Q: What sequence folds into this?
């Protein structure tokens, strides 16, 4: 059975109070709508359409290569689905309608709806949930066997219907053959003057079609309308991700303080300290230890490396097997080969550090002259003394040693010693004479 998904995202999302379209706000490192698209992709949907408002080019850019269709005016969820009609007119199979602001939807939930349709031969499967506070949701009017006669929007419900606790989760599955004729019959004579997708249920009943309900976990259909809800859903998502990684063999000393992205990849026996933040695109191999308060984004870390505490790994950092990246070290667009050590207070940017090189405390690669970035090459086994400035472009040969406090502006040959600082001089007795003069000046002042 073929599958098409229609993700509605043309609503304005005014309650976010944001210049950004609601569905572009992030959860676990990715835009809300990307999570929904991913769930559809996981089911290998044959078509995924996003319904957008005309001014949402920024959303289109994010969801590509999904197809986007435009709802010119937001006339309601039923009208929004119609925007995909021309593209799906000849489609036969299941059509699932999702909301772009419901990011915790799982492939499992979608599959459950499909299974229910197969089992019951229904024309529509409605998703429902039991919220603590049903106030704003559409009420699902169903009998004990799960056959649904109607969904009544909260604004249109009678006091008696408002007593119903079973609420519409928004997700709906349609047999494609019936969807378009039902949408044609929608009218907007209701409280909000909108074309409600939910009215398809009563219309289906009138046409002798079967509608059933499937109750899903509350989180799977929870929507984001405000930033408070965004934060609440982020919490749920983070818990899901932490649990997934811990069950797969990752130790987290304080799971609640570890922030993950949906695409974070962690190997077996990885140990993560408290307050570690993973941005997008992090891959960590087996047996890596990431100590407290480290921040990582678009980096890959090879087997057995040690990171942090307080390390910042920025985009393009590649850390080799067994390497050590210590406290207050920032690494950007650089590869640190196996066994190398950058242990204290350093900035390594646009550099290549060879295997087993030792980068002393306070070493800085000066990679930027205000106009362009240039590279620093450090050979295998090189030893860079503390507080060295490496002014790029510059290369330090394999096995070379740099004296502490050097400012290196020329390439250093392999296995040589480079010292680039003022030679130390002594002035015998100078300090003693200095103190005597100061003391006598003070005595004269007091007299
Ligand atoms: C909808 C359901 C309600 C359900 C609730 C669950 C309808 C009529 N009501 O109500 O039964 O309990 O979701 O959260 O479907 N959208 C468009 N174009 C429009 C209107 C909406 O694309 O013209 C999109 C929105 O961007 C949003 C989604 O559809 O992603 C839902 O719209 P919203 O207005 O939030 O519906 P609710 O009032 O929450
Ligand atoms: Ca909503």
A:
């Amino acid at each position: 059975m073929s599958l098409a998904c229609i993700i509605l995202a043309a609503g304005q999302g005014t309650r976010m109070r944001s210049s950004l379209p609601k569905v572009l706000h992030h959860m676990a490192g990715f835009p809300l709508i990307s999570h929904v698209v991913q769930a559809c992709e996981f089911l290998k949907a044959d078509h995924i359409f996003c319904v957008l408002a005309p001014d949402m080019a920024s959303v289109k850019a994010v969801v590509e290569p999904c197809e986007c269709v435009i709802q010119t005016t937001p006339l309601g969820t039923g009208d929004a689905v119609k925007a995909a009609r021309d593209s799906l007119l000849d489609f036969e199979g299941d059509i699932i309608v999702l909301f772009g602001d419901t990011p915790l939807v799982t492939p499992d939930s979608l599959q459950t709806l499909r299974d229910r349709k197969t089992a019951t031969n229904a024309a529509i499967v409605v998703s429902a949930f039991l919220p603590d506070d049903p106030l704003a949701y559409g009420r699902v009017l169903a009998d004990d066997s799960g056959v649904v006669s109607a969904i009544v929007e909260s604004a249109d419900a009678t006091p008696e219907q408002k007593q119903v606790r079973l609420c519409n989760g928004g997700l709906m599955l349609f047999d494609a053959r019936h969807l378009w004729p039902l949408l044609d019959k929608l009218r907007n004579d209701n409280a909000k003057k909108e074309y409600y997708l939910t009215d398809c249920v009563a219309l289906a009943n009138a046409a002798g079609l079967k509608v059933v309900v499937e109750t899903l976990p509350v989180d799977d259909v929870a929507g984001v309308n405000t930033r408070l809800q965004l934060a609440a859903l982020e919490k749920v998502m983070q818990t899901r991700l932490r649990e997934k990684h811990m069950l797969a063999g990752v130790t987290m000393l304080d799971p609640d303080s570890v922030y993950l992205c949906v695409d974070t990849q962690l190997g077996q026996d990885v140990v993560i300290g408290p307050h570690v933040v993973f941005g997008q695109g992090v891959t960590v191999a087996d047996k890596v230890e990431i100590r407290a308060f480290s921040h990582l984004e678009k980096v890959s870390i090879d087997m057995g490396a040690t990171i942090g505490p307080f390390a910042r790994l920025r985009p393009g950092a590649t850390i080799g097997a067994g390497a050590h990246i210590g406290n207050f070290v920032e690494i950007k667009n650089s590869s640190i080969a196996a066994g190398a050590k950058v242990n204290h207070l350093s900035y390594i940017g646009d550099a290549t550090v060879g295997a087993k090189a030792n980068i002393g405390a306070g070493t800085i690669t000066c990679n930027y002259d205000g106009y362009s970035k240039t590279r620093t090459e450090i050979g295998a086994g090189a030893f860079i003394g503390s507080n060295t400035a490496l002014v790029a472009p510059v290369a330090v040969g394999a096995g070379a040693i740099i004296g502490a406090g050097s400012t290196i502006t020329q390439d250093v040959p392999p296995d040589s010693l480079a010292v680039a600082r003022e030679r130390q001089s002594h002035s015998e007795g100078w300090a003693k004479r200095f103190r005597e003069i100061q003391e006598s000046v003070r005595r004269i002042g007091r007299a």
Observations:
- The radius of gyration is 31 Å.
